[in-house]
Amino acid sequence: MTKFLSLATAVLALARESNALVRPDNVGKLPALGWNSWNAFGCDIDAAKIMTAANEVVNLGLKDLGYEYINIDDCWSVKSGRDASTQRIIPDPTKFPDGVSGLADQIHDLGLKVGIYSSAGLTTCAGYPASLGYEDIDAQTFAEWGID
């Protein structure tokens, strides 16, 4: 019985402590919830597939349950490198004819947020340009595209 009371006390203390991390506007009440393109499509992604998934998050009621992120995983850029003059990563125009910003606008119109994958190395796991040495440029670029 003593072990049970000790466990119960610890659980209650943790529960009280975790509520202290929730802001008055409920930020922190749930973990970040969303959908990521990798498990469904791997590198076989494009704007249409991602918009279909975003629409399903809304249609299935997941948005109402707290899902808010649509994450574009690896393979969204051209594999050949960065723009020579700006050093920015170039979205694949075949996969994203309206650019990443056009897709982000459509996702935002659904009331959802957009995330995008990069890597801390020279290349991503699939061999696409990554952010090592370009962190500031990439952060600025992603923000300009409407990535949340």
From TrEMBL:
Its main location: secreted. Pfam families: Melibiase_2. One of its GO terms (molecular function) is alpha-galactosidase activity. The keyword rRNA-binding does not apply. Residues 1-20 form the signal peptide. It is an enzyme of class 3 (hydrolase). It is found in: Secreted. One of its GO terms (cellular component) is extracellular region. Keywords: Disulfide bond, Glycoprotein, Glycosidase, Hydrolase, Secreted, Signal. Its EC number is 3.2.1.22. One of its GO terms (biological process) is carbohydrate metabolic process. It catalyses: Hydrolysis of terminal, non-reducing alpha-D-galactose residues in alpha-D-galactosides, including galactose oligosaccharides, galactomannans and galactolipids. Belongs to the glycosyl hydrolase 27 family. Hydrolyzes a variety of simple alpha-D-galactoside as well as more complex molecules such as oligosaccharides and polysaccharides. This is Alpha-galactosidase. It comes from Aspergillus thermomutatus. The lineage of its organism: Eukaryota, Fungi, Dikarya, Ascomycota, Pezizomycotina.
